[in-house]
């Protein structure tokens, strides 16, 4: 794989302005009219230089290149991770290190570094230092890591952030169904086993506000009804069950819930 950063003479953490400046300088040096060397050789070098500039000056193409470059770098002598680690005061490098570790199955190191940077810098945000797509991928991987550690509230907040970002600027649409499934699993099943009922209800209500789909909202309302039923608050349980059934008349799993609430008794009143 050609190292476009080396071709341009810049670091992987360089800014767009540095890429542009270095390209102009290199292009002048390689211009065939200014060189006594082989004309054909100069043309080949300029072509590679142009490829490097066109790739790295385009945010989307650079993001794709960086991902491949990370994978490639891990297989060659150059230790990309150690390079990023050495740039301790460069928040771009540190943000890329978090993403790198998440991509390469080092979630603990990534989460620890993120926490350290968040504590050190009051306004630290990966969004400021990663491209839009890398940032969304990074959020997903961080949420996944937190979910595995049973840090459900933090994981849930990151998944919800992904949804909000997707609404503003679509990118994650192929994976949004999985994000919604994970939110459903966390809030409606995992949280309910370890958090206070009212806390679980709050998080489920937050998902209803996203208005993912009628079926999703019907399911969320049914789960709230179930929690209220266990609390003995049958009128509230009935209220949310009615909301769910209005959204989906074929809402599954309501027969036993109706019996517990005394659905027929309330309906007759």
List keywords for this structure.
single chain; 72% helix; 269 residues; Helix Hairpins
Describe the model:
Among the domains are: 1-57, Helix Hairpins, CATH 1.10.287.110; 213-269, no CATH class. 72% of the residues lie in helices and 0% in strands. It contains 15 helices and no strands. It is elongated, with a radius of gyration of 26 Å. It starts with a helix and ends with a helix. Residues 34-39 have low confidence and may be disordered.
How much is the average pLDDT? 89
Order of helices and strands: HHHHHHHHHHHHHHH
Give the name of the CATH architecture of the domain at 1-57.
Orthogonal Bundle
Helical/strand content category: mainly alpha
**Radius of gyration in whole Å, from Cα?**
26 Å
Q: Do you know the CATH topology of the domain at 1-57?
A: Helix Hairpins
Task: Provide the low-confidence segments as ranges.
Answer: 34-39
Largest sheet: none
Name the CATH superfamily assignment of the domain at 1-57.
DnaJ domain
Kindly, what is the distance between the CA atoms of the first and last residues, rounded to a whole number of angstroms? 74 Å
Kindly estimate the percentage of residues that lie in beta strands according to DSSP: under 5%
CATH class of the domain at 1-57: Mainly Alpha
Count of β-strands: 0
């Amino acid at each position: 794989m050609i190292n476009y950063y080396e071709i341009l003479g810049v670091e992987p953490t360089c800014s767009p302005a540095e890429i542009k400046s270095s390209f102009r300088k290199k292009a002048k040096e390689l211009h065939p009219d200014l060189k006594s060397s082989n004309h054909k050789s100069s043309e080949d070098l300029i072509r590679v230089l142009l490829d490097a500039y066109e790739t790295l000056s385009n945010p989307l193409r650079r993001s794709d290149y960086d991902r491949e470059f990370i994978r490639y770098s891990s297989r060659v002598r150059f230790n990309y991770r150690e390079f990023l680690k050495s740039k301790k005061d460069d928040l771009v490098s540190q943000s890329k290190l978090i993403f790198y570790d998440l991509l390469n199955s080092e979630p603990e190191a990534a989460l620890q570094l993120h926490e350290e940077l968040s504590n050190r810098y009051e306004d630290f945000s990966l969004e400021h230092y990663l491209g839009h797509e890398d940032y969304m991928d990074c959020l997903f991987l961080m949420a996944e890591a937190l979910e595995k550690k049973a840090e459900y509230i933090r994981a849930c907040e990151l998944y919800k952030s992904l949804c909000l970002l997707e609404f503003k600027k679509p990118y994650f649409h192929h994976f949004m169904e999985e994000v919604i499934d994970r939110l459903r699993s966390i809030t409606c099943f995992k949280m309910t086993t370890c958090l206070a009922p009212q806390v679980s209800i709050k998080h489920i209500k937050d998902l209803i506000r996203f208005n993912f789909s009628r079926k999703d909202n019907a399911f969320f309302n049914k789960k709230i009804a179930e929690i209220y039923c266990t609390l003995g608050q049958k009128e509230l349980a009935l209220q949310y069950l009615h909301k769910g059934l209005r959204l989906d008349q074929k809402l599954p799993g309501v027969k036993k819930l109706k019996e517990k609430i005394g659905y027929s008794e309330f309906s007759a009143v």
